[in-house]
Design brief:
4-stranded antiparallel sheet
Length: 180
C-alpha cells in the first residue's frame, strides 16, 4: 500500500451539475483543471499506509463511520489556496460540518499505525491547480454564485491514489455512516 486518503465522494448528479457550470468557463482560465471523476473531499491523507496497517485502518474507519450520522450538504461557493491574490489552487466549497468526520478519519489513520499528512482541515473540492501564484479573484467571485443540488453524506471512502499520467484514484473500501 502507499498513498491513501479517506474521503467523501459526491454523487454523480452533483458532480455533473458542477462540471456543467464550469465547462463553458474552463477555456477562460489557463489552469490545470482536475477531472470531475476525481473530485472528492479529503478528510485525511497519508503518504504511506504500511501493508500491516491496512486491515486495522479499515476496522477503525468502519467504527468511526458507524458513530457518525449521515448529514445534508451541497457544493457552494469557492475560494483559493493560499489566497485569491496569489492562488496555487482553485476550489469549490461545501455546506455542512465535515470537521467531525475529518477528526474521526485522522484518528483512525494514526491509530492504525500510519501518519496523517497535511495541515489544518478545510472541506473543499480541488477544481484546478496553477503553475505559479496567480490572482484568481474573478474566479472566486464566479464560484460564489454557484450553489449545487443538495445531497446527503452517507459514507466514507478509503481511496488509494496512484500518481503518474494524471492521478488515478481507486476506492479500496467504503464505510457507511450510522445513526450517530
Amino acid at each position: 500500500m502507499s498513498r491513501m486518503f479517506v474521503a467523501v465522494i459526491p454523487p454523480g448528479d452533483v458532480v455533473e451539475d458542477l462540471d456543467d457550470f464550469l465547462s463553458v468557463r474552463r477555456s477562460a482560465g489557463e489552469f490545470r483543471w482536475t477531472r470531475a471523476d476525481t473530485w472528492h473531499v479529503t478528510l485525511a491523507f497519508t503518504a504511506h499506509v504500511p501493508e500491516r496497517s491496512f486491515d486495522s485502518l479499515c476496522e477503525r474507519l468502519a467504527v468511526a463511520a458507524g458513530r457518525r450520522a449521515a448529514f445534508p450538504t451541497r457544493i457552494v461557493g469557492g475560494g483559493a489556496f493560499p489566497h485569491p491574490d496569489g492562488a496555487r489552487v482553485l476550489f469549490a466549497g461545501l455546506e455542512g460540518s465535515f470537521d467531525f468526520l475529518s477528526r474521526a478519519a485522522r484518528n483512525a489513520v494514526v491509530a492504525s499505525g500510519a501518519e496523517v499528512d497535511g495541515q489544518r482541515f478545510h472541506p473543499h473540492l480541488t477544481l484546478a491547480r496553477l503553475g505559479r501564484p496567480t490572482n484568481v479573484t474573478r474566479w472566486v467571485r464566479l464560484l460564489e454564485s454557484y450553489a449545487g443540488p443538495p445531497w446527503e453524506v452517507t459514507e466514507l471512502a478509503l481511496v488509494e491514489s496512484h500518481l503518474g499520467e494524471g492521478p488515478r484514484h481507486e476506492v479500496c473500501a467504503t464505510f457507511p455512516l450510522g445513526d450517530g
